[in-house]
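Ticket #4471: complex job returned nothing on first submit. Input attached below:
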Amino acid sequence: MAYSQAFKDHISNPRNSGQIADATAVAEETNPVCGDRLRLSLRLDADRIEQAKFLAYGCPPTLVCGSVLTELVLGKTIAQASLLTRNDVLDALGGLPSRKHHAAALAIETLHAAIRSIAANHRSLTHVKD
Amino acid sequence: MVTSRRIYLDHSATTPVDPRVAGAMIPYLTEKFGNPSSVHHFGQEARAALERSRRQVANLIGARPNEILFLSGGTEANNLALRGLCEAAESYGRHIVTSAIEHSSLRGVCETLEKRGWEVTRLPVYNTGIVELDDVRTALRPDTVLISVMLANNEIGTIQPISEIGSLVREERARGRRHLWLHTDAVQAAGRIAIDVEVLGCDLASLSSHKFYAPKGTGALYVRRGVRLVSQSVGGHQEREKRAGTEGIPGIVAMGAAAKLAAEELAERAAHVRTLRDKFEAGVSQRIKDIVINGDHERRLPHLANISFRFIEGEGLLIGLDLQGIAVSTGSACSSGTLEPSPVILALGRNDELTRGAIRFSFGKDNSDADVDYVLEVLPRVVQKLRNLSPLYTRAAAK
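Support reply: We reran it on our side without changes. The output follows.
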């Protein structure tokens, strides 16, 4: 299997692995077809992502996409992060074989789930204030 | 860190060519290039080599030379055995008994036959990875013409009770049932354990040369004298009309030379790989928690260990080990190119997590004690690194 240098680098040295104790948002998504899982925790400073960590269970592309995702979102605002697509993940990796694209899709779904939970929290806090 | 050290622990996938085998083969790539069907000197030289190889392969499994057909490999052997026998026997019945853990080539042939109206009973293997003789007996029907059960499994190495099944077939014949035959896929077993087709009582047995230190591209089918097969390749008289096409003499010579060496060195090789495998398994059990060793611990090939590592997926471990120079294999869904995890490990009753975390380590005659030490040093680190990334592990650890 011809994986890119970036892929090998991420699988050898995953970035930002683990969980954030005082995370602003946590999401865990599963690929229903193959059972791969990705858990993403984010900590925000105002609306900027200042820390991102991941945990993953599944094939190497899933682990690598989790690692890449944390690098992509760091420093971005929620609005910027919500514009990321699976192609951004694939580009950062120098591509993946097409049958592994589901790993990048899982990464983006998990990111979107985390962002949705931030929005939901924000709404409920706003509601309490009212 | 990428290492320059390379340790090959995937001998069930293929083996390196023994230099002695390569040496025997080379003259047949160069000056001894004749076609064995030719009448002149060159042809007769090739013919002599072909028949010598036939004797050498026959000797490895206790067969007569004229019971050996040379083919392109184990997959073709399984195809010819099943399709050839079923086509010849279909007027007597259209039912096959096989196991749930056969090699994909045999599973594929069975599925094709089912589409043509054959019925197939797949026997369970329970948590041992071994079929039960009583299940074979119960599965037999008046229209059963073929039992096909592998001699040893390719993923977990379990050795099936073929000689008991062979005795059952003989009993059935003694009771007047003339149209029941036994095939065994001996691809993984040949060269690793002693095989005698008379003891096994099989009618057909598949072999592949590259599993015992010869090149890829050559295999053989043992066909007991008197067993009728319909050729699956026509248009030539080669291999007793059963496999048309000019014989691949260099590969066949290599298979013969490798079979001769395997027969001579069988006990020594088996003892060597068993020592390495047992040391490896003991070391892994001591160093790594939450593992399951798959398949019956006694009745299995001496060179193979199949271990499920909880909380992680096999391909991640495979790549992690590869980056450290260690070559292993996994039946995990991703690496097999399908989305289905290994049917063999699933057939043992393992859950999805254990099935996906199964890794096969298969040792060979050229592995050393130092190889095992190195793997035992690297493997726990790679497993722990992946576990630290796994939400399943952190959840279990938090409890």
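The mean pLDDT of chain B is 95. Closing as resolved unless it happens again.
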